[in-house]
Amino acid sequence: MKAKTPRVRREPSRIAVFSPAMKLVGVCASMTAAAQMLKVSTSAIHFACNGKTPSCQGWYVRELDNVIIEFPDDLGTLRLEDFDNLNGTKRTTYPDRGTRKI
Hints:
By secondary structure, the chain is an alpha+beta fold. The chain is globular and about 50 Å long.
């Protein structure tokens, strides 16, 4: 019996980054780029995108597969809840004050 080889994506998936206040603040070209920007591991971004963890160091990240974002209009105005509704997913989030470290 042969061992299964892991599936590898040919193209990186774009990642939407939401602030602790749940507003869109940026889009990264890949999970690796998002991990470098947030100074975390790529697996932490992967777990947050797949829903295994609600956030990554207080930042919410989502994959941009089916949702079209209009730049620059959506930056700072698109809320995480609206994004999840457009994507058809239901995710757990923290209260805004629960993620702040200031």
